[in-house]
């Protein structure tokens, strides 16, 4: 069996760099290896608007294709509320903050939602 751990870390680094370049907020990386067969890593990040979320996904898709990835699936780009980019061993969820707080994927994996991604009502409490 071939060890793809290094390749997956390179892919994860490409994703992180792309999101950081696009000023994504609250980037969370969840290691799924050994917990799920869907991917080795899940990345969750926020953009401040539909336009930013869509632009981040476009930039990420270009970067992945330039890196030689061929079968990348992207869902939700048209709306920009929540975009899923499936790059095989790295799955990326890009949200507007209120949509991220509603679905709270971090909780499903036993993590806390970053404080700045909390719903606005709970920040005032």
UniProtKB/TrEMBL annotation:
Q: What Gene Ontology terms describe where this protein resides (cellular component)?
A: cytoplasm
* Major location category of this protein: cytoplasm
Against SUPFAM superfamilies, the record matches this protein to: Nucleotidyltransferase
Task: List the GO biological process terms.
Answer: cytosolic ribosome assembly; negative regulation of ribosome biogenesis; negative regulation of translation
Q: Which UniProt keywords apply?
A: Cytoplasm, Repressor, Translation regulation
Looking up InterPro entries in the UniProt record yields: Iojap/RsfS/C7orf30, NT_sf
Superkingdom is: Bacteria
Localization, per the record, is: Cytoplasm
The molecular function GO annotations come to:
ribosomal large subunit binding
Keyword Repressor listed: yes
So what does this one do?
Functions as a ribosomal silencing factor. Interacts with ribosomal protein uL14 (rplN), blocking formation of intersubunit bridge B8. Prevents association of the 30S and 50S ribosomal subunits and the formation of functional ribosomes, thus repressing translation.
Q: How does it assemble?
A: Interacts with ribosomal protein uL14 (rplN).
Q: Which family does it belong to?
A: Belongs to the Iojap/RsfS family.
Name it. Answer: Ribosomal silencing factor RsfS
């Amino acid at each position: 069996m071939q060890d793809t751990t290094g390749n997956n870390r390179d892919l994860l680094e490409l994703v992180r760099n792309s999101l950081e370049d696009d000023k994504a907020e609250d980037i969370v990386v969840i290691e799924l290896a050994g917990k799920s067969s869907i991917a080795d890593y899940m990345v969750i990040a926020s953009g401040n608007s539909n336009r930013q979320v869509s632009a981040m996904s476009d930039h990420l898709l270009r970067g992945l294709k330039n890196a030689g990835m061929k079968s990348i699936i992207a869902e939700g780009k048209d709306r920009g509320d929540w975009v899923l980019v499936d790059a095989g061993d790295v799955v990326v969820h890009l949200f507007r903050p209120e949509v991220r707080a509603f679905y709270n994927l971090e909780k499903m994996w036993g993590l806390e939602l970053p404080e700045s991604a909390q719903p606005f009502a709970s920040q005032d409490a």
